[in-house]
Amino acid sequence: MSTPAPARDAFAALVLHRRPQRARVGLTLGFVRTFAVPEIAEVLDRTGRLASAPKARAKATGAMMFALVGHGVDSPDGQRIVAELAAVHRLPGVDAELMRYVLACFTVCPVEFADGTPAEREAAAAFAADLAAALHLPPLPGPGLAETAAWMREFETARFAPSEAGRRLWHTVAPLFAARLPRRLARHAPAFAAALLDAPLRAAFALPRPPLPLRAAARLAFHLTR
Questions:
Q1: Residues 121/14, Cβ–Cβ less than 8 Å
Q2: Are 93 and 43 spatial neighbours (Cβ–Cβ below 8 Å)?
Q3: Could you tell me which of 17, 76, 122, 145 has the fewest CB atoms within 10 Å of its CB?
């Protein structure tokens, strides 16, 4: 059974209305986290779709997730998107644990970056449970988002590793952060985006640690958006 609409609506209100730009940055960061898992990076790199049209693929990913959040997993649009996501699950090299991790990233990262309230976090966890069930995946750790986030970090400790595919994907996607920056800073998007990455991601992508002023400026620049 899917989450009741009032609970789901709290998550939808955050990512679609209250702080949509921050949520989109968070979703992009969640997408980037998956590149640090070599098995996921190899699948994404092998298809070539992200490299050939990074902006279109990133936009399509965001549109799918936010349509699911807005309309619900059981809606006609939601069922269509679930079928598309299930097709990804059938790609060679993609197993249930990898799919669970991607789902965790796409739920936890937007909420964390948008500074979701306890009610919004609870609704996000309920949404993730609905989507996992619709995709016939094992349930994510719960009952709250904190447990899912903790499992996500444990997964990363075990599975993050450098890979050529992951580095290529990062350098393909980094310029897309320009759309979320003030115009005068847009040309510095890769540097500002790298400043948002934590140490495990920087290690996977072989990136140096940005200086503290740049890290502080990046957080401020992206958090000034609604």
A1: no
A2: yes
A3: 76
**What is the number of domains present in the chain?**
1
Residues sharing a CB contact under 8 Å with residue 209, sequence separation 6 or more, in sequence order = 199, 202
Task: Name the residue range of residue 110's domain.
Answer: 5-174
pLDDT in tens, 188-213: 888 989 999 999 999 999 999 989 88
pTM of the predicted model, to two decimals?
Answer: 0.89
In a domain, 187, yes or no: no
